[in-house]
Amino acid sequence: MFLSGLIKPKRQSEFSLPGMADEQNQQELNNNPIDTPVDQEASSANIPPAEVPPTPKPALKNNDLIFWGGIIILVAGSVFFSANFFSSNSLSIVTTPEVTPTETPSPVAGWYDYENTDFNFSLKYPPDFMALPKEETPNIGSGDFILGLVRLEDNQTTNIIRVNVIRNGLDSYRITGVGAGAIFHFDSQTGQWLNQNDQSLENAPKTLTAPVKAFVYKGGDMNCVDDIITIPNELGNLIVEIINITCDKSVGKEYVTPNFKLDSELLISTFSLTDEIIADINGYYKKSDRLNWGDTPVQCDSFVITGGDSWFIEKYKNMVTQQGNTVNYIDESGNLVFNLELGNLPEPDKTNIVNSSQTANINLTVEEKKLNGMGVDVCFSFVEVIGVR
């Protein structure tokens, strides 16, 4: 639209058109006025015919120069503007620096490892806890004492951890509530903890969110509060019991407010059970004469265990003496006689086992089977032999 101001309409008088006199012709006209008589015959006889002047090219007037100059300026300006625009706004690839995500440090980073190979479990505990002897650990819970830990602050006890092992399953396990006096047992049919009157109470043990199946009972009195954590190892037919204790004897007649320096759920998040329970035992082979169901006489491939992993020996002795297991038995010398399954063994291993004797013991590595509640006969073996030495 702004170009219209530069275009000016041209008038015919602004151009030199063919037939118009130039300056030389005009001078000759001035020298020969119209009123001077002219000899027409002489003129026609002596004067050659006048040459027709060439058609002159139109000359650019001032207005044309202004017009075309404006066009040139306009084009040059457009080119200059475009060059600068695209130069200053040219597309470029912007490289975004790679941002490495910051990893959130683990809340158990720097904790110490504890592993129990006898009962096949492990856990972690903070570095500000130290070992505590059994005689200095509060006698809470049931079963055999395994580990005691204590945290001191200004030489004052602020937190105690006690770990017990119970050589039974959940069916015979009991939790005694400190202070409340309730005794809880686990009902496998309903999956609930019931008191001695088979009632489900609000303060009964609760399921913990943990990598393993675990329950926590929160108890306490006017001196101490405690979390009793129960972790059943159904494959090993035993229970790991972890008790988290904090005390404040200055409270008086009021119940202690929980002030754990070690959160129970954080502690259990580090706990793990061995999926495959493996034991080393030594002894010798024996053919056992037994009576199968229906009093049918049978002979079983048995192994008299004279040494090895104590947890394994005590566990299966306990099954015989306290749980009524009649598959294995204890001989007159007090040794556990344990059934073996030899059918799937390589022939050399089978021969080495059968040739062992009371004076020539052999070492075996065995792995416990997952029973899945199946029925067994009197010659059933709870383990598979995975190594013979």
How would the blueprint of this fold be written?
Blueprint: H1 23-31, H2 40-46, H3 62-88, E1 112-116, E2 121-125, E3 129-131, E4 144-153, E5 156-166, E6 174-176, E7 183-187, E8 192-194, E9 206-207, E10 215-220, E11 224-233, E12 238-247, H4 264-268, E13 272-273, E14 278-292, E15 296-308, H5 310-321, E16 329-330, E17 336-339, H6 347-354, E18 362-368, E19 383-388
Antiparallel strand pairs: 1-2, 2-13, 3-4, 4-5, 5-12, 6-7, 7-8, 9-10, 10-11, 11-12, 14-15, 14-18, 15-17, 16-17, 18-19
Describe this protein's structure:
By secondary structure, the protein is α+β, with helices and mostly antiparallel strands. It folds into 3 domains: 2-83, no CATH class; 112-273, Mog1/PsbP, alpha/beta/alpha sandwich (Protein Transport Mog1p, Chain A), CATH 3.40.1000; 278-388, no CATH class. The chain contains 6 helices and 19 strands. It has helices spanning 23-31, 40-46, 62-88, 264-268, 310-321, 347-354, and strands at 112-116, 121-125, 129-131, 144-153, 156-166, 174-176, 183-187, 192-194, 206-207, 215-220, 224-233, 238-247, 272-273, 278-292, 296-308, 329-330, 336-339, 362-368, 383-388. The strands form 4 sheets. Strands 3-4-5-12-11-10-9 form a 7-stranded antiparallel beta sheet, with no helix packed on it. A 6-stranded antiparallel beta sheet has the order 16-17-15-14-18-19, with helices on one face. Strands 1-2-13 form a 3-stranded antiparallel beta sheet, with no helix packed on it. The longest helix is centred in the first third of the chain and has 27 residues, at 62-88. It is extended and about 135 Å long. The model is unreliable at 1-27 and 32-45 (pLDDT under 50).
